[in-house]
Amino acid sequence: MSVPGWKEEELEIETVGGNLNITGKHTEDTVEEQAQWIYRGIRKADFQLSFSLPEHTKVNNAKLEQGLLLVEIYQEIPESEKPKKIAIESKQKALEHKS
């Protein structure tokens, strides 16, 4: 996610009930508040985004690098829900095992 000019302390990431919420609350520097701008290249406005996560999805970590917020998520399927292969036995195999 592109967040140019944002600092780590201005961003919040949380998971709530199957949703990933990303919130940005801009804190103006006192110098910026008092300055009169002719042109401001990057305008920062508070934002909140919410993404629905698939079942069994977990957020591993997050990084802020060069204006990009990287959120690492992975899906962890419980053993009880993973596909299982069932061996097929024939009468021929059963007779061979008894011998």
From TrEMBL:
<protein>
    <submittedName>
        <fullName>Heat shock protein</fullName>
    </submittedName>
</protein>
<comment type="similarity">
    <text>Belongs to the small heat shock protein (HSP20) family.</text>
</comment>
<keyword id="KW-0346">Stress response</keyword>
<keyword id="KW-0143">Chaperone</keyword>
<dbReference type="Pfam" id="PF00011">
    <property type="entry name" value="HSP20"/>
</dbReference>
<feature type="domain" description="SHSP">
    <location>
        <begin position="1"/>
        <end position="91"/>
    </location>
</feature>
<dbReference type="InterPro" id="IPR008978">
    <property type="entry name" value="HSP20-like_chaperone"/>
</dbReference>
<dbReference type="InterPro" id="IPR002068">
    <property type="entry name" value="A-crystallin/Hsp20_dom"/>
</dbReference>
